[in-house]
C-alpha cells in the first residue's frame, strides 16, 4: 500500500513538472469578464500538417496566455476550456492581439466533444475579413449555461512564435480595441521627430553620420511600427508582403555600424576596431541579401545575430573608451540601454523568459533610448566642432588684428586691399586711400609716458572706426601711423571724410592725471587709386607724400596727392 501511495505521489509530481494531457480550464464568473492572465495549453506541430481531429488526441503542455516559443515552433496549437457554471449563457470575445504578425490563424470551437464552428484566416487575405480588426483577431463565442466550450487555435508564424490570447466581454473588448497601440505611436512619433531634426542637421553640416543616423532611425521606426502592430492598426495591412518589411530589423544594425565607423573615424584612428566592425557588417549584409529571397529564413538566426552584434559593438565601444575617444562615453550610455533591453528581448523571442511588457517591447524601448542618445552625440559633436571653429576664428582674428586698437594689422590690410582693388576694377568704381599720422607723438611719449601714448592711439582708433563705413578697410600700420582704404569713394569724398576725422580728433581730450588732460592733432594724406593702372602699394606711397607735405605745412591738416597728368 505504501508503495502504491508513493507511486501516485511521484506521478502527481511528474504531471506538475512536465504538464498533463488536457488544457487548463477558465471559469467565466457572473460579473464583468476581463481575463488577461490565465493558463492555456499548447502543442507544437513539428510536421506542420496535423489536422484538428489529429491534434485533439495530442498532449498539450501548460503555459500562460501570453507565451513565446522561439523559432522552432512555427506551427503551434493552443487549447483553452471555458467553463460557464452560471444559469445564463455567456458571450465573450476571444482576442488574438498578435495575429497581425503570423502567416495563418485557424480557430476550432468544440462543445460536448463536437465541432460546432471553425474559422480559417490567411493573413494575405485578412484585410477584408470580419475576424480582423486593426491587427487583432476577434472571435466571438457563446458558452451555454452550465456547460463548457473548448477552443483550439492554430497559429502558423513566419519565424518566431509569440502568442497572446485574451477573453473579454463586449464592453471590455471594445475598450481594448479602441485603446491599443498608443505607446507604439508615441515611440514612432519620437523617432519621426528625430528624423526631421537630423535631416536639418545634415543640410547644415553635410556629415555622413547624419545620413547613417537618419537611415538607422527610419529602419527602427519601420520595425517598431510593424512588429508591434501599428502598421496593421493604421493601414489594415498584413501578410507576406508586409512581413517583408522585417528586413528593417537587419538594415537597422547595418546603419548603426556605419554610424559608428563614421562618427568615431575608425578607419583612420582605430584600424583594429574598424576591422571588427567591418567583419560584422559583411555578415549583416549577407543576411540582408538572403532576406530578399527568404525573409523567414533570414529572421530565424536574427536573435543570435543580434546577440553577436551587441557583444561586438559593446566591446568596440569599451576599447575606444579606453583609448580616449571623447564621444564614445555617451555612445556607451545609449548602447548600454540598447544592449540591456535587446538582451531581454532576445531571451523573450527565443522563448527563454516569460512574456512581459518589458520583454516583448524590449527592442523598441532599446531602439528609442539609443536613438535619443545618438541624437545627443551628434548635437554634442556639432557643439565641439563649433567651439573649435570659433577658437580657430578667434586665432585668425588675433593674427589679423592689432592687439592694442583691435583694428586690422598691416598684413591683413594688404591681403584684403588687393581683393578690394580687383573688385573696384570689375565694377569700374573709384577707390581712395588715406594715411593718418599723429602729430608730435614722440613728445607725447617723452612728456607723459607710453601709457598715455597708448591711450592717444586707442582714442584715434575709435575715431577712425566711428567715421568709417562698414565696407571701409581701417588698419594700424605701426606706431602712430594708420591707413584707411575707401571703396567707391573718389578724391573729393575721401577729402570730406578726412576733414571729419581731423576735426573730431582735434576736439578730443585724453585724461593724463587728475585734473589734467591732453589734446592732440593728426595729419592726413590722401591719394585716389588709379584703378587698373597702379597697385595699392603705389597709391599708399603717393598718400605718404601728401602726408609729409601736410606735416611740412604746419600739421593738423589734410593734403591730397594729385596723380601726374597722363
UniProtKB/TrEMBL annotation:
Keyword Nucleotidyltransferase belongs to the record: yes
EC number: 2.7.7.65
Keyword field contains Ribonucleoprotein: no
Highest taxon above the source species: Bacteria
Record's keyword terms, sorted: Membrane, Nucleotidyltransferase, Transferase, Transmembrane, Transmembrane helix
Database matches in InterPro entries: 7TMR_DISM_rcpt_extracell_dom1, 7TMR_DISM_rcpt_extracell_dom2, Diguanylate_Cyclase, GGDEF_dom, Nucleotide_cyclase, Rev_trsase/Diguanyl_cyclase
One Pfam family named in its UniProt record: 7TMR-DISMED2
Example of a GO MF term: diguanylate cyclase activity
Catalysed reaction, written as an equation: 2 GTP = 3',3'-c-di-GMP + 2 diphosphate
GGDEF domain residues: 429-563
Protein name: diguanylate cyclase
Organism (species): Marinobacter xestospongiae
